[in-house]
Amino acid sequence: MEARAADRRIATLARHLEASSLKDSHEIVSASPTSSNSSSPSVFNHLARAPEDPILGVTVAFNKDPSPSKLNLGVGAYRTEEGKPLVLNVVRQAEKLLVNDSSRNKEYIPIVGLADFNKLSAKLILGANSPAIQENRVTTVQCLSGTGSLRVGAEFLARHYHQRTVYITQPTWGNHPKVFALAGLSVKTYRYYDPATRGLNFQGLLEDLGSAPSGAIVLLHACAHNPTGVDPTPAQWEQIRQLIRSKGLLPFFDSAYQGFASGSLDRDAEPVRMFVADGGECLVAQSYAKNMGLYGERVGALSIVCKTADVASRVESQLKLVIRPMYSSPPIHGASIVATILKDRSMYHQWTIELKEMAERIISMRQQLFNALKSRGTPGDWSHIIKQIGMFTFTGLNSKQVAFMTKEFHIYMTSDGRISMAGLSSRTVPHLADAIHAAVTRGV
Amino acid sequence: MAAIVSVVSSTPNAAAASSLSKEKMKLGSCNFNSLLWQGKRPSFATPKSLSKVTMSVATNVSRFESITMAPPDPILGVSEAFKADTHEMKLNLGVGAYRTEDLQPYVLNVVKKAENLMLESGENKEYLPIEGLVAFNKATAELLFGADNSVIQQQRVATVQGLSGTGSLRLAAALIERYFPGAKVLISSPTWGNHKNIFNDAKVPWSEYRYYDPKTVGLDFDGMISDIKAAPEGSFVLLHGCAHNPTGIDPTPEQWVKIADVIEEKNHIPFFDVAYQGFASGSLDEDASSVRLFASRGMELLVAQSYSKNLGLYAERIGAINVVCSSADAATRVKSQLKRLARPMYSNPPVHGARIVANVVGNPVLFNEWKEEMKMMAGRIKSVRQKLYDSICAKDKTGKDWSYILKQIGMFSFTGLNKAQSDNMTNKWHVYMTKDGRISLAGLSSAKCEYLADAIIDSFYNVS
Questions:
Q1: Which of residues 140-169 of B touch A (CB under 8 A)?
Q2: Does any CB of chain A come closer than 8 Å to the CB of residue B53?
Q3: pLDDT at B77
Q4: Predicted TM-score of the model (pTM)
Q5: Is B292 in the same domain as B358?
């Protein structure tokens, strides 16, 4: 223990020495006006400047660009045809009710969040008639959107589950490996995307999951895979389920697009429900960022489907021990909006309509982009644009092409070639098509 | 086939399950289950493997079976127990949430006004940057240090919006774990119950410095200085900016100077938890004086802030972590690393509470109204503190000195009751409090002071 601590201190010192550039030491020596009275260097001197988050950093770069034709296809936030953020009408309605309700207060909500929010969220993803719910085998805790739900689930597994490896798709959302690693799990990948077909590498997936150690955790995207937009078919899902169950692997679903992918809440939940129907256990992280447009409110839920009600209740008690030292209890506002909408028939119905409109606009953008590339005669098969599903398209463009598109056409997207269809409009599709065409034909 | 079905249809016997070894439990139980669902017979099933499979079905046990029931949170669990109690005289002095004289939760008028303004302006709900709402970060740092403070003017403060006090402390703990590996955090004995959990979960080692002196029901100042001095150089010293939780005992201004001296001497890093700015004395500036003292000495320091109490925004989870660095460049780098820690925890913080704070602090009319409401809340607590003291003195004829109740400050009072006595408070008197003898005066009405005085006197003298 002592030796390890000493090693760490030496390592820190070494990093400190590495990090000290000529610039740093000049600052120290010259006692510039921006430094404090103390003549000693900052204790934080060994901290390097971290690069911007690769995904959220795209927006940072976009904001800095003065070009009028700039296009932000980075982060997956829905935009209207006019390119504006959207707050759903039903959300505004719910918020108005909440703010004007004088019986409401801002007392701490329970560590596990709002009870009605939790129940309604479980019903939404698992189905109102789910036997797992009826048998009280599901514990659901409100968390900070998808990220928070994944992190709490991962921390729980790292403490209480015998297998500490999680398998994530290759590729996957950029934040996944960090979430799991910081929770203390080791991360491996399984083949998923096939660049040759721009579709699913199903054989590779089966092989890799087939050779995973028994009990390993497997991260599955419930629908609208991020970043590729490539989802297994129902038949493929069934095979995946059988394989996972036969190897005793533990499925951990990331459901960030329920209702957003196909336009149907039930259809987008099918893979999750298929797994729950076989009586087995699984984890599900839900996010309301996209499907209710509640991005900044950080609303989500973690559900753990257990074998018995007794296990579920013990699991819940342990989830509280993860949450309390992280942020004590979750924020009330977003969850209240969700609960208000889900429990009211007409608001729920209104929501499904607005959700469908968003999904359909995206589907139409896919079609328009595909048509635009076809009409330009852009070389290559671009059918994956209309085959892929959800907010994102994995264009197949490489990082050089992406950099070219950013520089020459002011298109902002992640370097893996992912574009957010939600950021496109009929007006801007031609500009994007021109950019892709140029990137592909100029042999970048 | 019939034989297999009959085994499966019987409910797995828990006793039988536990009597089988772990080895057998792992055998393809799920495999059999899924195949049965389809009504198929496993094609690989030889008579030998079938018997293995049928045994494992009977042990179709959860992979979480060995998880034990965690105990309820010692603080938040108190409210849960209180809710379950049906006694008419029950009193909740557990969690530190402000109550009116009618013992009702209180939403500040300025908060309601801010929320209405926000509704009218119809802002969007886009993701905040990882570091939070820019307007909030600016407002919160200025509130803490004073807008004209040199640390602000010189841009030496890295401010990141956090999930109230807890979330801000956790971000700081994660920063310490990553960039100061092996460094210890010194925490007061006693301290808020969740501090230890935060550092444990963040894998930051901690040790305690003496703080509370049960003999005087006051500050063990010599013990505190001695323990801070004895700690390894470069330790982080967790200090409560004002209104120490749970004791309510704060150092005097002179003592703060000596604390700063010894921290500087040992190259320790001060780490303030400021959850009650404005709530303790009623004055925002006065309650920030300890933090400002340290900053004025050119020290680098960390400060976690919370708006749960002073703006009554408990459930909105709004706070901030501030790191005062010796240079603007260091502050930029520190901020970038805090972001790197927040992203895999929750990506970016919630917008609602941050906008409320920014609206209140940024609007001179609302800001002044807030100061008035805060004075009112702090004033009510001071007055029940006085009334409780008066009631106890009137009933206790032994001449015991209860004046420590008046000297303590903030939401809480350390009664000096031990665990058994605190249990008596709950079991006999239906007064809910934490086992360390802490009562939340915020949950006390002047109407109930007499009852509480009776309970305290009974517990103190009749229970050991």
A1: 154-156, 163-167
A2: no
A3: 78
A4: 0.88
A5: yes
